[in-house]
Amino acid sequence: MIYRITSRSFIMARHTSHGIETAPMFVVSVNPAPNLTTPPENLPDKLRYYRQRAGLLQKEVADKLGIDRNTYSRYELPTRERYPEEKLKALAELYGLPQNALSDGYIEFLKNQGNIISEKRRDLGLTQKEFAKRVGTKLANLKRWERGEVAADRRTWEMYFKD
Q: Partner of 130 for a Cys bridge, out of 13, 48, 55, 126, CB 3.0 to 4.6 A?
């Protein structure tokens, strides 16, 4: 349960076999409250949603994954783009979810990025040089994307490859 102390401070409390555990929470920025009946679309919000639904603290999840709490807390930030696949599998197992529940279109895109990009370029009838110019990147970057050596960023995916 989350209890409001002041307009910007809360305390999260839960019953355990050892009594009541609490954790202070402070509002740094205001985001809409999560809809606790439907999982969100983006992965950072999904991770927060399932963690809160399970009644776990970030530290507890991090401990179960064998990582530092600060590392895990960055998983829940909207600026995070890439996630270790083995950690997503472990999280899905922890929450009793199918593997694909902790994914989004960008993560799926990265799994087959090279083929998707080169196929789209060929469908448009463009050379690598022409396509690189169209998507606003250097030719060398496009070649690395197509070979799967470097990941295209989320913004590029959203602008040019998201269905």
A: 126
